[in-house]
Amino acid sequence: MDCRILIGKLAWAAALAGLVAVSGGCAPLALTAAGIGGSTAVSHVLGGVTYRTFSEPLPKVKGATMKALSRMQIKVDGAEKNGAGEIIKAEASGREIEIELESLTPNTTRMRAVAKNGLIYDSATATEIIIQTETVLVRS
Question: Hey, what CATH topology would domain 40-139 get?
Fold first, then answer.
């Protein structure tokens, strides 16, 4: 076996072992980031809540969110104003979905999405709602 190949394999093994050792406590976050592709600017916290900040005014983000929910065939139960923003409540396959839109500035809106099935958080559905909202915004 060529020494360069052996050294290359050993370097990869050492790098992989180092990553495993360093990321032991961050495994759920690493898996989540890998699951959404890493290139999407969606942030998770351990509780299953998904966040994204858009450089768009709240009314535009709300319109895109409603269009995304419609495209996903998620039933909207209602929307209500909440301080500097709005809360949209929806339902899909027994999951309670809550989307909070908060106006940070006139042209910046923070979106928080939560999808729960009983006591279990469904971060995949919450992430997809945000991704679909972003897709609508990009196309408009």
Answer: TATA-Binding Protein (3.30.310)
